[in-house]
Amino acid sequence: MNASTATAPGPLQGLKIVEMGQLIAGPFAAKTLGDLGADVIKIEPPEGGDPLRQWRLIKDGTSVWWQVQSRNKRSIALDLRQPEGQAIARELIAQADVLVENFRPGTLEAWGMDYASLASTNPGLILLRISGYGQTGPYRDKPGFGVIGEAMGGLRHLTGEPGRVPVRCGVSIGDTLASLHGVIGILAALHHRQATGRGQVVDVALHEAVFNVMESLLPEYSAFGTVREPAGSALPGIAPSNAYRCQDGQVLVAGNGDSIFKRLMVAIGRPDLAERPDLASNTGRVASVAEIDGAIGHWTGERTVNEVLAALDAAQVPVGRIYTARDIAEDPHYRARDMILTQRTREGYEVEVPGIVPKLSVTPGGIRSPAPRLGEDTDAVLRELGHTDEQIAALRARGLIR
Fold this sequence. Notes:
Blueprint: E1 16-19, H1 25-35, E2 39-44, E3 58-59, E4 62-63, H2 64-69, E5 73-77, H3 83-94, E6 98-101, H4 107-110, H5 115-121, E7 126-131, H6 146-152, H7 173-196, E8 201-205, H8 206-211, H9 217-224, E9 241-246, E10 249-254, H10 258-267, H11 271-274, H12 282-287, H13 289-301, H14 305-314, E11 319-321, H15 325-330, H16 332-336, E12 340-344, E13 350-354, H17 378-384, H18 389-397
Parallel strand pairs: 1-2, 1-6, 2-5, 6-7, 7-8
Antiparallel strand pairs: 3-4, 9-10, 10-11, 12-13
Helix pairs in contact: 1-7, 6-7
Protein name: CaiB/BaiF CoA transferase family protein
Keywords: Transferase
InterPro entries: CoA-transferase_III_domain, CoA-Trfase_fam_III, CoA-Trfase_III_dom3_sf, CoA-Trfase_III_dom_1_sf
């Protein structure tokens, strides 16, 4: 699917978002809202813009990550360090439904943009604030990045092999989890506003978003004093669920359902394990997990990845290869569900980008516009606020806009 064919307005059409902040957490939340149809106006510093424009691999002067993170957005280059720039931002916010920011707590207040002041002119404003430690508490003023949130939230301790230094999962998962929690908060606040007419603050801390998905980590400690430890590719307390080596790679096998386990054992030629009474439930399988993993690993080790996939698919056992970017790009299922879209950038080249999640049956999201150049929409946005061409030219001459 070519992204240019996505012309549906989306379920959030008519919603105006002002995005402040930079890099990942705040911008990903605004990107998600933009994918679903909201009008997102991104405020960037005139010099250099959002640093994400230059992160990781660069093509024609701009990061290809930027092409994903900033699609469906308009860019206004505005110097928020200057009082006049702050005044223009307040004009924008006065007409917005949602303000998204991921500065350190106190930054908005220093600019005279505390929520009480903003809400005095826009009572329905919803303010999403994403920060390292939240807007309250003893750590609120500490600088925080997603990786620190992953550590404090309990995730980083579990990602790795037993006895070795923990590793990161490979992407900025702490930032993204905070973004998605922020979007949930915005949608809940919009529902409340529909009934009351009043907005509110959505306060998301990076470590709290990570902690919220840590399953039974805390209750197990509370009830049993058990500290969950890293277990490599296994899923502790649930068996069998692990990664296994093949002749030419690895696969993940999830055979932890009672009936699935029996089908798995038959498929690998171990009907004796399938019929053992002590392995009929997860409790017994956990007690014998080393034996089970050994049997599965011996079987997979004698076969290729494709042979393992074919055999376990036939037995209706959940199994999957460990995908690389190449595997994703070549997978027909991704393309059948429009999860790989072709987007033409402002620089003129085409690049494949992730599709829209979630998928709505009646009002699906889409990519309506590519990521903007720095300040590309400054004049248009200011005209929407009522500024004349002469006023815009004067602002540009003073370096307040670009």
